[in-house]
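Table S2 (continued). Query chain:
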Amino acid sequence: MTETDMTLIDLLQKHDGRREIIGLCVGPSEAETFRTEFLRSLKGRGFDGVKL
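Corresponding output:
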């Protein structure tokens, strides 16, 4: 990891109020392609509430 890397963490809040990490990814800076691929990976795993 470098100073310019970015970490994306996606949380899911359950009905009982608990939170769960459902996605974690480290990539180059704040590149739009990196963020888009992260969201697509969540959508590909069945999280249909993810909007690109």
